[in-house]
């Protein structure tokens, strides 16, 4: 793929879409297993990794997305991290997170679409 | 393809600024080097890359149609990038043809 087209921006947006997709699956699993005894809710670790990667990129001058990938991690409520035993699923929070994630996914798709439209204008001689 | 061309120019640019007399020597060396970074090799490489992209996106489309696509957004991004690559390729082709016709019309 041409490096100018598959740029850092597009790779970033696609990675973020990967994360949103995985988060949708994690929240769906949490809601489906809300009544399962001993179930540990899942969350997705992505934004903190991305933040570190971009910061490292700013320091060294070249952003490196190689090691960054959305991962499933056990969700631990703030403050009682490391607590042994199962944390119950909070259905209202999960439903809100699901809605938020859906909006986030739509926004990312729209952003990627705008980015491609810009490239398309550049490639198409100023025409659409 | 365009990036390779840019890199080639970037490598040459400082040389050209320092010693303009060195330019013809460089041009002759590049054009003559067999299978090297000549213009023909550059174009062939670009066409091969676009062809590879087209084949890859065709495979993605098939897996989407048969319901085996890993993720929808990756398939769509791939298709869009292939479209842009192909469009860029067509533009370069048009410019090269224009230049060729210009040279053909030139009075010797």
From TrEMBL, chain A:
<dbReference type="InterPro" id="IPR001444">
    <property type="entry name" value="Flag_bb_rod_N"/>
</dbReference>
<keyword id="KW-0975">Bacterial flagellum</keyword>
<keyword id="KW-0969">Cilium</keyword>
<dbReference type="GO" id="GO:0030694">
    <property type="term" value="C:bacterial-type flagellum basal body, rod"/>
</dbReference>
<protein>
    <recommendedName>
        <fullName>Flagellar basal body rod protein FlgB</fullName>
    </recommendedName>
</protein>
<keyword id="KW-0966">Cell projection</keyword>
<comment type="similarity">
    <text>Belongs to the flagella basal body rod proteins family.</text>
</comment>
<keyword id="KW-0282">Flagellum</keyword>
<comment type="subunit">
    <text>The basal body constitutes a major portion of the flagellar organelle and consists of a number of rings mounted on a central rod.</text>
</comment>
<dbReference type="InterPro" id="IPR006300">
    <property type="entry name" value="FlgB"/>
</dbReference>
<dbReference type="GO" id="GO:0071973">
    <property type="term" value="P:bacterial-type flagellum-dependent cell motility"/>
</dbReference>
<dbReference type="Pfam" id="PF00460">
    <property type="entry name" value="Flg_bb_rod"/>
</dbReference>
<feature type="domain" description="Flagellar basal body rod protein N-terminal">
    <location>
        <begin position="13"/>
        <end position="40"/>
    </location>
</feature>
<comment type="function">
    <text>Structural component of flagellum, the bacterial motility apparatus. Part of the rod structure of flagellar basal body.</text>
</comment>
